[in-house]
Amino acid sequence: MQKYLTTIARILLAQIFLVQVVALVISFMNNPSGYQEYQAGLGSLGLPGIFAPLIILINLIGGLGLLLGYKTKAVALVMAIYVVALIFLLKLPLLQYMAIAGGLLLLHANPNTACSLDNLKK
Predict the structure, then answer these.
(1) Domain membership flag for residue 118
(2) Number of domains in the chain
(3) How far apart are CA 4 and CA 69, in angstroms?
(4) Cβ–Cβ < 8 Å for 107, 67
(5) Entry pTM
(6) Where in the sequence is the domain holding 68, given as residue range(s)?
């Protein structure tokens, strides 16, 4: 039963990152200057334009890694570090994103989940 609960947790954590990517892509497609506005928004926070594609790429790769359960232990740790970095770089709500980082660290500590690519190797 615990493996299925951790699977649900893994999928719910993955959706945070994947939904953000989908929302960004939809906004870019609906607004011709959406990507430039996204870069400008990051620039107003003091981040250079190179961070726009990096944030999207990390969200996509990390979200897919969590969703599929591929290298769960490593992906969860990297994403936890990423979320903590975003808190300070983008001035995100501290408690909400620290809770996400905490969930990712729990997944890092307990990476054995059902329905994952990691389990196919065994």
Answers:
(1) no
(2) 1
(3) 12
(4) no
(5) 0.91
(6) 2-112
